[in-house]
Batch of 2 targets.
Target 1
Amino acid sequence: MTAPKFKAGQRVRIIDRTPPVHHRVPSYAKGQVGVIERVCGVHGEPEKFIRGDGKPAQRLYRVRIPQTELWDAYDGTESDLLEIEIFEHWLEPAQ
Amino acid sequence: MTDHDHSRTFQADHPEPTTDAARVGLALRELLIEAGHYTADEEQTVIAAMQGASPENGAKIVARAWTDAAYKERLIENGGEALREAGFDIAPYEFTVMENTDDIHNVIVCTLCSCYPRSLLGMSPAWYKSSSYRSRVVREPRKVLAEFGVKLNDDVDVRVHDSTAELRYMVLPQRPAGTDDWSEEKLAALVTRDSLIGTQRDLQT
């Protein structure tokens, strides 16, 4: 497995797409910008599994997104956070 | 049900299926066993192991972290290693511990299904699997927590952890005041299942 493409603290965008297969990105997170909270291990990602292509190894990350950026009229503080696991091929660098 | 055949039910003490979904599940299971993907005995072993798991396992980990600062550091740094050190293992999943502090409250959810560290803590509560909890706790965590009795002031940040892939989470609740001279065993008895998920904050002594 190659080195992680992203590092902790880096700003990333979760790609907004909807492949017609089982994928582990909830719709509320698609298109959102966050920061890599930590680089996790390498795991089998499930999108090709339905076609009999196994679960290719992919780097996993935790992405941190401020709640106030996720939801309109969020009832909480500016520093409330949402953290979510995202596979590397769902992430792109963001400004 | 005198001709009741245990190899044909999910669990020996479960009733026969009455819904179409349950019948489909049962048929699928029989096909998998017939095709040799696993045996009924292996299935029973896994079920027994999961039934043996309970929040008490998590409570032991918490009590050890409360009484051993170096262990707590290892637990937060590398949860899987620290878990194995204590005699537990949830591989192939990563074990991730989120520590509550005076300023931070953590709460766990799986919005996509109901991922939960089952092999450590046992079956998750019914509400954890409900679509209401799963959809609401990400969007309005403070309101949902208040419904559980956790009232947070604005000087406490909420961190919601959506368990979407290969990590399994446990919250490390705060040690209650006035327990300085308590034994690890006595401390573990304070820890509740909900406090390990984050829908309880203050533990009662």
Note: Chain A has a mean pLDDT of 94.
Target 2
Amino acid sequence: MNVNASTLNEVATVATPVAGLDPLLEIKNLRIEFRGKSDTIVAVPDLSFRVRPGESYGLVGESGCGKSTTAMAIMGYLGSTGVIARGSIRFEGKELVGAGARELRSIRGRRIAMVYQDPMSALNPVKTIGAQLAEVPLLHLGAGRKEAMEMAAAMLADVRLPDAGDMLKRYPHQLSGGQQQRVVIAMALLARPSLLLLDEPTTGLDVTVEAAVIDLIAELRRRYSTSLLFISHNLGLIAETCDRVGIMYSGEMVEEGGTGDLFRNPRHPYTQGLIDCIPDIGSDKRSLVLRAIPGHIPLPQERPAGCLFAPRCSGFTKGLCDAPALDLERAGEDHLVRCARWQVMERPAAVAPEEADHPDKLADAITLREVTKVYRLAAHKVLKANESVSFSARKAEIVALVGESGCGKSTLARIVTGLDRATSGAIRMAGDNIAELEARDRPRRLLQSVQMIFQNPDSTLNPSHSAAHSIRRSIKKFGVRKGKSAIEQRVRELLAMVRLSPALADRKPSQLSGGQKQRIAIARAFAADPSLIVADEPVSALDVSVQAAVVTLLLDIQKEKHTTMLFISHDLALVRHVADRVVVMYLGKVMEQGTVEEVFGGGTHPYTEALISAIRSPNPDETPRERIRLAGETPSPVNVPAGCRFATRCHRKLGAVCDTVPPPIRRMSETHEIACHIEEAQLRVEPPVYAAANEA
Amino acid sequence: MALQDSIARVEMGTAKRAQRPSWMRIFRSRTAVVGLCLVLFWVVAALLAPILPLPSPTDSDVMAMANPTPSAAHWLGTDILGRDILSRLIFGARTVLFVAPLSVAVAMIVGITLGMLAGYFGGWIDAAISRASDVILAFPVLVIYVILIANIGPSVINIVIATTIASAPGIGRITRGLVLGLKEQEYIAAAKLRSESTLYIMLVELLPNCRSMLIVDACLRIGYTIITIGILGFLGLGLPPPNPDWGGMVKESVTVLNVWPLMSLAPSFAIVSLVLGFNLLADGIREAWKP
């Protein structure tokens, strides 16, 4: 990567003589405020950093840290209330703050281009891809119509979209999310900008699609010697794609340095915390406790004096950390850190969990047999959300359902909880078959025994009612406690269990943070005293530091109550950390199931291999054996391949047999099953994707 | 997220709204306050009408008939029959402010119920309710009123019935749309998983979240209904004389518009000010309660 960067520097120097050794983008003492009628919010108090020509600079931070605001300020899109109160943004030697609209227009889109998080909102739904792409050369390069269309077609081929000629005539909604994002990238690159701003460009995409988009960005960057400003909350992604990294916290840069150095020797306690709260692909819940950062990011109005991270820092020292005007200090070559105590800060050692008492795990808590769910869309059009899904979960076990969007994992969750009913098959729980019973048909006892934790903290609680409303109702409805005072007592116990202050009980959801709402949702699920919890992506919408805390909490409660749990997730690293057993699904079918060691070890299904290899770890010494690139995108569940569902994208496809014959199930061990045409012996010789996974 | 939230709050100038009860928030909107003042002016006038030192709205002042222009005795003058216009306006407000909100309230109850059923259950229930609404919505509102009132006769109850038939489909459609979005929310799924009854889910989980939209809609509809009542009065389908009726007052004096314009303009302005008040109030509430 470094070699590349230096050659690119030369290329860039030749291309833009102005740049020379000067930074391409230099931000100095930038202060961004949002001014309303009665209040002013300082989103970014004082920010400085520079992006050198040809460099890829990563801006990392949790939501609300001001990283997107900074990008918007560079583009000059702060809206009607945003104001650059102080400081300068220099680009190619020109000052952008206070520049005229004409001048800005000649730079924006032409010299600086931006790729947004949501491609659908960046594309105009009523114009064809071709018309939108051609606009760029027409406007910025003065090209003619025909020429512009040719450039658009060539660029589409460059972002590896198949059949560019046909693609030009399509409308955005006819493309998949991954394809849309490629079009947006193509649009950004058409004017050959010298700086490309990427604001969470892959956050909405599936992991295997994300891997392809990241590859593409790296390749295009090499080809066009474009500098990147890569904004993301995903440390692994940044570690892999960037040369230098800046860590932002509450509008301030807290640490900055070369990628390898910064991730190997993080100096700031916040950076250390961020790295440590990400589940590690090499360890599971029996060997490591995720270390959460306590508290939450301060709102702009409530920033403390001195170090902004001080209230959440374990090394807080009075008189030192709360002294105002804390500056960035040099902590090595090209490594800056804003911490008064960085020289004495010690990174906390990894904590091993207490030895869990293994309860009797023999009895099956829930068994799914040949569960199939078919949605009839039209007379001859059916959508098979699940087909012949069979697995079981033992008592007090955590079974993870893994797969990308559209694999049917959420449908399965809805069937198990009774929000939907299976078309055929059986789900046995304590002798009852609940597969075709919807919630309203289930006896109260059954309803009580299966509860659910939902994905979206913003929709999990009714905005019109207090936080504790649904907990109270649940206790009352299931008769867990009788009488007003007993119920209130129980609500307090449950809030204490999820480590929330009882004072939060009467707050409205709009006054709670995402992490707090999700804790309330956990308390609500456990309020019924269920024997099975279905958790559908319970932490995917939360910031990483909060995610760690909520996962740890969920694991603690589950362990204490011996609750069985179906844990649905697309985050393989998290699943590795949480699960006892893993079921990998693709397009409604189970591809592989086994214990967590088996699935993450050697000899797995090709799809599992691809999923695991798409995990990006911020640990620079932890890289997969090879990154497996899947071709194409997940087919639509309406039109599934006839043979193996995965055959269209498989990197180890055998031949025609994969396309026509459904794969046999290979029994690798008592607990490990793989649905694949590849012979068992050949599957077995494949080493694990992550070397570290072997040792665990 | 927290930052975006606070930025959004700054943009609305309601940074500390979290601590305020939602009803108090409307006082932060100037539009709402102006609207509220206009509405309250008429409400207070109507309430105090019997104790205000006004001439009777139905008695003719024969002396004033020769010159019905404003005088010390009749601040806004009299109509052709010598009845005090100010008094008739204020007593007329009593009718309007009773009939319009009452008929909208009834229409809201019917419309919300139908919309709730259609949105929540979907399927054939939705199809039946929606198609029936479409048929009614295809008629011009005024035609519905004229046909109904002309047939069943002008009375308070009949105006309530006509308003319900004309307005409930629209209200139902709004409610249905809201419910369609809300019923997929995870808190509804959570309610089903704790065996809440359908009625509970509709009334306690769904309805409060439709509240702000429906209140805004109700305010606008009261305005429309006031206009409609005015038109009915003008067409002679208002409350039977000698009851003071704003639309009727315009009608009675329209022939002398060139001579004594105030006779028609005063009730017209009354209608305009009250309708404007409700519309501004609706806009203000929408602004203040913007999520």
Note: Chain A touches chain B through 55 residues (CB under 8 Å).
